[in-house]
Design brief:
The structure holds three protein chains of three kinds. By secondary structure, chain A is mainly alpha-helical. Chain A has helices spanning 2-40, 47-67, 78-106, 111-133, 150-157, 167-189, 191-201, 203-208, 213-239, 245-260, 265-283, 287-293, 312-326; strands spanning 146-148, 165-166. Chain A is globular. In chain B, helix 3 runs parallel beside helix 6. The relative contact order of chain B is 0.19. In chain B, 37% of the residues lie in helices and 25% in strands. In chain B, a hairpin with a 2-residue loop joins strand 4 (55-62) and strand 5 (65-66). Chain B is globular. By secondary structure, chain B is an alpha/beta fold. By secondary structure, chain C is mainly alpha-helical. Chain C has two domains: 41-79 and 157-341, no CATH class; 342-437, no CATH class. Chain C has 18 helices and two strands. Chain C has helices at residues 3-24, 27-54, 61-76, 81-111, 116-146, 164-185, 190-210, 212-215, 231-236, 238-247, 251-283, 285-295, 297-302, 307-333, 343-357, 362-390, 399-406, 411-426; strands at residues 221-222, 335-336. A two-stranded antiparallel sheet of chain C has the order 1-2. The chains are: A mainly alpha, B alpha/beta, C mainly alpha. Chain A binds chain B through residues 191, 194-195, 197-198, 201-202, 204-212, 336-337, and chain B through 72-73, 76-77, 82, 84, 87-93, 97, 100-102, 104-105, 147-148, 151.
């Protein structure tokens, strides 16, 4: 019995808790991609860099706040910096729409044109980010490191296995829950939110109902920018801010969005967790879990790891491929908010 | 002056004009039906009235004001309602949300309008929280009409409302449309089912190749031998 | 101005820029830029075949380039005998097992007369079992191979053939990958291809970085054999020595110029060949049909053209061209370094070349490859110069100034983005627009 609990604690410590945090970050990222897709109908390759931009503003604001001696006790200061980062990222999104994307809407450009345009934005953003903060890693998580320390857990439960929950992980999951709840309330209960869903569902009919497309597009960028800033900051907080990793995040984020069905917010969240849990479960070394669950002589020699940790990214790709082969529209057939 | 009038309209989607000097008008409280063979430009004429395609020549008046270059969404605010032929409901949204979206431009309390729509189409009330995409064809049309009614339009324009529904549903739909007209809303319809439509119409237009061929009261058109032979199957 | 004159002027302007670099900076630098311009032009041709002819968005140029690089290693490096003895057979049979597994899994999914769910689970089971079996076969082999003198080799090596063969092999390898990815994602929405190619290219790089037995991973393979003479050899040759004294330049510099000229000669031949072939293809009935499909997929489909299989053809061809360019690049470098492959440099920059040059026009792609590569290289000193100029009023040790100067290199990303957006907005047909025929 104790062994089973130990095995569970082990799994929780190395798979469930990290996957919950990572899944929340992916879900927030995928929500941004999916919102743009649902309303503006293109795949925004620049979303990863938008997240990175948000994270960078958070890093800089955090430094500023720390300099000024403003912190919030045991919680990371970055939480205070988050509103600044949201405002800045939203401004960047609105500016990019005003200067770049809007013109192509009046031209009724093909989706692939937007894709290429988003590559241009991707270039500019990554240049701006590296120009401002440089290419090096920045750690900006402060406050208390752990909500639950491994030793405290052991003392509490009397198990051999520790379970640690980092503050950043807790903050990530709680923030994500709050944000997602707010977003769904907005989309389903408010007049503006419903008009966005209507526009995404049937553009022509939305016009015939007197819905102003310019306003819908603007609100979409505001929400996307906010989501990107939050997702980027949480990811950077959890794993350290590395400017170059965000381009690599585009793949798992798009996979998450497609798994759930592009354009569908519930699907994006679901997809985020599917990707995160698959990555963790497939790259976890099960040797010690098996050791707890079986008599000693059965313990295998190898690590019992299905896939080397380096191939995390391949997991999201394989899931993407499976979805494309079996159900390209995703689990929650998409294209609507 | 009529309530809504398109005068000598020329225009189309590409290089060639589909409408070749087409004039259509409707007055308050009237039911006007536009019929004609396939490709005659019936739907195009209605879309032209609503500003959904650019006119090369001709003009559109509403209440005596020229609105030729006005955007469709602005015409909605003036009091024009439009029910397209296809994809005329928000499939992923519930019946009630569809109606709310119809009332998007209204800032006042529109619950009475919703109640009115439900009185007109009782079948919708029990399905109010079902996604419109899950409804039957006839009920979808009801939602579509209901959505357009939510703006309290002065004129309601329907593009082939009975396309693809069974004869029984069609009769019921026509009954409802007459009820709508009785409340003082002008109703303009483009119809394939010319005979049944002309039966309920105050006035009718027969378009051929983008041009007015006949225009008269519904009854007179039904009685006209030429019209019957050429367009109503004898 | 006729089209021909305009194009000649554009290319002449480009040549003048390169000459200017040769005069004001150094001939060596100008030739180094020229060689990469030539390779970039070939990459751009590859992307243009996919995008310009057929409207396919390939976001995985980097991956196909890297496969070309891998081919250069596998073809040219002599085999490591001890490694083959240690685990070569086992590794190869493991790989065969892996391929068989996947084939069997797909076959089950396609052919078995069961319900969709049952088929899904059966093929999943086959693949999982196969992968575990493959790991069981391969893992010890990999360990054994990587243990063979890890500081020097630790990989299987290659065939020890002349490296020029790798240019073809690189094309073939890229074509194979393109076939697999095209099979999966063509025929779906256009952005799915973009995302799938983005994914496969990232994974190719991960594999190359981590599978040391294949090409030493991040330990790199250096000293690849050359198709041209070495500088040292040239310096020992009499006519080179004579030439140096007659031209009054440093012998070492001259030898390196000669080497670069040799490379340039080879690259020009390949570029000309590929250009000629692509132009012929474009003018053939096949090319006309491709453009017909690009311009109206629905109509072409309705006329009975199999759009998806045509797209697959063109996608494979374009990727093969990119693979060739990738092999040439690694040949030129003489070293294979998986960690240098970055999507911005190897995928999206090539896209900028094609768009700026003029999508759908091969000549345009070549010019785009030249212009963009030139500015990619020269934007760095230019940006640095500009920042130096604008900050010259600041104190020498001002933190802001130091920071700006340090990060000046990244202004070129911004430049490229701005150039791309400006061209798309104000001249969407590019420097040399597609001809209407």
């Amino acid at each position: 019995m104790i062994d089973i609990l130990n095995a569970l604690a082990l799994l929780a410590n190395f798979v469930i808790v990290p996957a919950l945090a990572y899944g929340s970050q992916l879900a927030l990222g995928a929500l941004g991609v999916t919102m743009i897709y649902a309303v503006l109908r293109f795949s925004n390759f620049a979303h990863g860099e938008t997240m990175s931009f948000g994270a960078m503003i958070s890093v800089l604001s955090t430094w500023g706040l720390q300099e000024a001696g403003i912190t919030i006790g045991s919680l990371p200061t970055a939480l205070l910096a988050l509103p600044i980062s949201i405002v800045a990222t939203v401004c960047v999104c609105l500016l990019s729409d005003r200067l770049i994307y809007r013109y192509y809407r009046t031209q009724k450009a093909a989706p692939v044109t937007y894709l290429i345009i988003s590559v241009g934005v991707l270039f500019i953003l990554s240049g701006v980010i590296r120009f401002i903060i440089g290419p090096k890693d920045q750690i900006f998580a402060d406050g208390q490191r752990f909500i639950l320390k491994a030793r405290a857990f052991k003392e509490m439960t009397g198990l051999d296995q520790g379970l640690a929950i980092k503050t950043t992980q807790g903050v990530t999951v709680i923030t994500a829950v709050v944000i997602v709840a707010l977003l769904f309330w907005f989309l389903n209960q408010t007049r503006t939110g419903k008009s966005m869903r209507a526009y995404s569902d049937n553009e022509e009919l939305a016009l015939l109902s007197g819905i102003n497309p310019a306003r819908v597009v603007m609100i979409t960028w505001i929400i996307t920018g906010a989501l990107a800033a939050i997702a980027g900051t949480l990811y950077g907080l959890d794993k350290g801010y590395k400017p170059f990793t965000y381009l690599g995040l585009v793949l798992p984020i798009f996979s998450a969005a497609i798994v759930g069905g592009v354009g569908n917010p519930v699907g994006a969240i679901f997809g985020g967790f599917v990707i995160a849990f698959s990555e963790m479960l497939l790259t976890f070394a099960y040797k010690r879990v098996i050791a707890y669950l079986t008599p000693g002589e059965w313990v295998p020699d190898g690590l019992m790891q299905l896939l080397a940790t380096d191939y995390k990214l391949a997991v999201s790709f394989v899931i993407l491929v499976i979805v494309l082969l079996i159900k390209p529209t995703g689990m929650f057939s998409g294209k609507t908010l | 002056m009529s309530l809504l009038e398109g005068q000598a309209m020329f225009g189309g989607y590409g290089a060639a004009d589909i409408l070749q000097d087409c004039t259509i008008a409707i007055d308050r409280g009237e039911v006007v039906v536009v019929v004609g063979p396939n490709g005659a430009g019936k739907s195009t004429a209605m879309k032209a009235l609503f500003g959904m395609l650019d006119l090369r020549k001709g003009s559109v008046f509403f209440n005596g004001d020229e609105i030729t270059s006005m955007l469709p969404q602005e015409r909605v605010r003036l009091g024009m309602g439009f029910v397209p032929q296809n994809s005329n409901v928000f499939t992923s949204m519930t019946v009630e949300e569809n109606l709310e979206m119809g009332a998007f431009i209204r800032r006042d309390d529109y619950s009475e309008s919703i109640a009115q729509v439900f009185r007109l189409f009782p079948a919708l009330e029990e399905k109010r929280s079902q996604p419109a995409g899950e409804l039957s064809g006839g009920q979808r049309q009801q939602v579509a009409v209901g959505r357009a009614l939510m703006t309290n339009p002065a004129v309601l324009m329907l593009d082939e409302p009975t396309a693809g529904v069974s004869p029984i549903v069609m009769d019921e739909l026509f009954d409802r449309i007459l009820e709508v007209a009785k409340t003082g809303i002008a109703v303009m319809m483009v119809e394939q089912n010319a005979r049944q439509a002309l039966e309920i119409a105050d006035r009718g237009y027969v378009l051929v190749q983008g041009q007015n061929r006949y225009s008269d009261t519904g009854a007179a058109l039904l009685a006209d031998k030429n019209v019957r032979k050429a367009f109503l199957g004898g | 101005m006729t089209e021909r004159l305009r194009n000649s002027l554009l290319f002449a302007g480009m040549a003048a820029l390169l000459v200017a670099v040769g005069v004001f900076q150094s001939a060596n630098l100008a030739l180094a830029i020229l060689n990469l311009c030539l390779i970039s032009a070939i990459m751009a041709l590859g992307v243009n075949i996919q995008w310009g002819y057929a409207g396919l968005f390939n976001a995985g140029v980097m991956g196909f380039t890297a496969l070309g690089g891998l081919a250069a290693v596998i073809i040219s490096v002599p085999p490591v005998t001890e490694a083959w003895v240690a685990g070569g057979l086992r590794a190869v049979s493991g790989l065969v097992l892996g391929v068989l597994t996947i084939a069997l899994g797909i076959l089950t999914w396609k052919k078995l007369s069961l319900g969709k769910t049952a088929r899904g689970w059966t093929s999943a089971l086959i693949i999982v079992t196969g992968v575990i079996a493959m790991r069981w076969v391969v893992d010890p082999a990999v360990e054994a191979i990587e243990a063979v003198e890890p500081a020097k080799t630790g990989f299987l090596g290659g065939f020890g053939l002349p490296i020029m063969f790798a240019w073809m092999a690189g094309g073939a390898l890229a074509a194979l990958a393109a076939w697999a990815i095209g099979k999966i994602s063509l025929g779906l929405r256009s952005d799915y291809l973009a995302i799938a190619t983005l994914g496969i290219s990232e994974i190719i790089i991960y594999v190359l970085k981590n599978e040391d037995w294949l090409a030493r991973g991040v330990k790199n393979v250096n000293g690849l054999p050359r198709p041209v003479p070495y500088e040292i050899e040239l310096q020992a040759t009499l006519w080179v020595q004579n030439l140096a004294s007659r031209l009054d330049i440093n012998l070492i510099e001259l030898s390196s110029i000669i080497v670069k000229l040799c490379y340039a000669g080879l690259f020009v031949v390949v570029l000309a060949l590929i250009y000629w072939l692509s132009e012929r293809a474009l003018r053939s009935p096949w090319g006309r049909m491709m453009r017909a499909i690009r311009d109206n997929e629905t109509a072409a489909g309705a006329m009975g053209k199999n759009v998806t299989s045509r797209h697959l053809q063109v996608f494979i061809l374009g990727s093969a061209v990119i693979g060739i360019a990738g092999a040439m690049l690694t040949t030129l470098d003489g070293i294979f370094t998986p960690s240098t492959y970055q999507p911005l440099r190897f995928t999206f920059l090539v896209w900028v070349m094609v768009i700026v040059g003029g999508s759908g026009n091969n000549l345009g792609s070549i010019l785009g490859g030249f212009v963009i590569w030139f500015f990619w290289i020269e934007a760095e000193p230019l940006g640095l110069g500009l920042i130096n100029f604008f900050t010259s009023s600041m104190a020498e040790d001002s933190a802001l100034r130091i920071h700006l100067l340090q990060n000046a290199a990244y202004t070129r990303y911004i430049t490229m983005g701005v150039v791309l957006l400006l061209v798309l907005r104000f001249s969407p047909r590019g420097l040399i627009p597609e001809r209407n025929r």
